[in-house]
Amino acid sequence: MLSRTKLSLFLLLLFILEGSVVQVFVPSAWGMSYETIPRFALVGTILISLFIGRREGLLYGLVFGLLQDVIFGHIIGVYTLSMMVAGYFAGLVLMLFHRSFAVVFTTLLLVLFGHEWLTYTLFRLFMTNPVDVQWTLTHEIFPTVLFNMLFAAFVYIPMKKLCLQVQENKERSHE
């Protein structure tokens, strides 16, 4: 139980960091035309889904997606839906492939891109002033995915250890 609490608090810390401290270091704060959006809680949710399972990823996606919608969102439900879908589909990879470093980072790349694309299309559907697809891909989606992949490289080992502790406690409680 304590390891699950540590994992949840670590994900909450990532969520707080993405909305506060990291905003100083994004390229748009320095006058560049590229927009990078830190999605640290999403990276954590995807890693949880890859190491523990798709239901855990779905649950953490629901909680942190709703938190993202309430605090930062313009439309309630967009980030909730996209983070839940991202967490669930990342967990489906466990059923198809062996969990290795290459599979984890390839899945992370594809799911981050899918999340950004889904949120773009949902916002484009509901907004009256749509943004050009090519500009969005080159100035927002690709830099955001790259930025979050770099972050994932730093947080991979601690998240893996926390997730394995949760998995061990989960298996021990079922025996």
TrEMBL record:
GO terms for cellular component: plasma membrane. The chain crosses the membrane at residues 101-120, 141-159. One of its GO terms (biological process) is regulation of cell shape. Its main location: membrane. It is found in: Cell membrane. Keywords: Cell membrane, Cell shape, Membrane, Transmembrane, Transmembrane helix. It is a multi-pass membrane protein. It comes from the Bacteria. Belongs to the MreD family. This is Rod shape-determining protein MreD.
